């Protein structure tokens, strides 16, 4: 009870926005193996930090239960880097929560292990596969490709999502991503949101991605792979 859990932080108020159909608590695991220039959590989550104790987590879960929370989102950072992730997910399931997992897709071996206990999974598609090393400083593109193929058969229990950065996510980029995701049941485009402390200072002053850009890229995805269900999420 006094040992650290994998959870570094949590959002006090549950949300209806992050887990389809659930009143959900948001839990955060620290540490990430990507370096996204637009990361909102980079200061807090990119490096591993000591988690809250299991006892603290238990009290927090009890409180969420009293607030009618029926789902938990395990986010990060990158949760699959956490060795205790399978234990954490089982722990949450045993307390009656449905579990959603957010992932960057870098650890397909871990995804395979935890999928039976996960209700919904959201995997980031940062860019076309070939540009991962340049865009997020992650070179193992075979791992990313493997995760995509692993998750496609989940159908509506999985979403792939891209945070669209104007100027980088061009129609050409969408023409590379869309065929890769053929067979997926949900692809979401969401806007880049500016913030003063983004890791890439060139992005700090950049405006939020416009709805016109999102709609143009959505149309490009539909033109390229008409059967791929794609939607826009407006973001916070
Ligand atoms: S994968 Fe997520 S947590 Fe990691 S750097 Fe990128 S945006 Fe941040």
Provide an overview of this structure.
Strands 1-2-3-4-5-6-7-8 form an eight-stranded mixed beta sheet. Strand 6 (158-164), helix 7 and strand 7 form a beta-alpha-beta unit. Helices cover 33% and strands 17% of the residues. Helix 4 (108-114) runs parallel beside helix 6 and helix 7 (171-180) packs across helix 9. The protein has nine helices and eight strands. The protein starts with 6 loop residues before the first strand and ends with a strand. The mean pLDDT is 95. It has one domain: Alpha-Beta Barrel (TIM Barrel). It is α/β, with parallel strands linked by helices and 236 residues long. Bound molecules: iron/sulfur cluster (SF4). Residues 32, 34-36, 39, 41-42, 45-46, 76-78, 104 line the site of iron/sulfur cluster.
| Spatial strand order of the main sheet | 1-2-3-4-5-6-7-8
Task: Identify the CATH homologous superfamily.
Answer: Aldolase class I
Q: Would you tell me the overall average pLDDT? A: 95
Bound molecules: iron/sulfur cluster
Which CATH first-tier class would you pick? Alpha Beta
Distance between the termini: 35 Å
CATH topology: TIM Barrel
| E-strand count | 8
Radius of gyration based on Cα positions:
17 Å
Helix content: 25-40%
CATH architecture: Alpha-Beta Barrel
The unreliable regions are none
SS class: alpha/beta
| Domains, number | 1
Number of helices: 9
Kindly summarize this structure in a few lines.
The chain has 236 residues and is α/β, with parallel strands linked by helices.
Essential attributes:
single chain, 236 residues, alpha/beta, TIM Barrel, eight-stranded mixed β-sheet, 8 strands, binds iron/sulfur cluster
């Amino acid at each position: 009870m006094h040992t650290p859990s994998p959870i570094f932080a949590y959002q006090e108020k549950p949300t209806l926005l992050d887990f389809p159909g659930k009143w959900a608590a948001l839990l955060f695991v620290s540490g990430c193996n990507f370096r996204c220039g637009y990361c909102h959590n980079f200061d807090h989550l990119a490096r591993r930090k000591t988690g809250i104790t299991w006892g603290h987590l238990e009290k927090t879960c009890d409180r969420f239960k009293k607030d009618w929370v029926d789902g938990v989102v395990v986010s990060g950072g990158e949760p699959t880097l956490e060795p205790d992730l399978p234990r954490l997910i089982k722990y949450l399931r045993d307390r009656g929560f449905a579990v959603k997992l957010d992932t960057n897709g870098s650890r397909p071996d871990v995804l395979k292990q935890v999928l039976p206990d996960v209700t919904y999974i959201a995997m980031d598609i940062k860019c076309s596969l070939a540009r991962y090393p340049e865009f997020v400083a992650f070179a193992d593109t075979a791992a990313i490709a493997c995760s995509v193929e692993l998750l496609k058969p989940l159908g509506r229990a999985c979403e792939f999502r891209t945070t669209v950065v104007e100027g980088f996510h061009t129609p050409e980029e969408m023409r590379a991503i869309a065929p890769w995701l053929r067979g997926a049941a949900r692809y979401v485009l969401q806007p880049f949101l500016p913030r003063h402390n983004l890791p890439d200072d060139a992005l700090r002053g950049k405006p939020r991605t416009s709805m016109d850009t999102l709609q143009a890229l959505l149309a490009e995805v539909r033109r390229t792979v008409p059967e791929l269900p794609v939607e826009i999420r407006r973001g916070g």
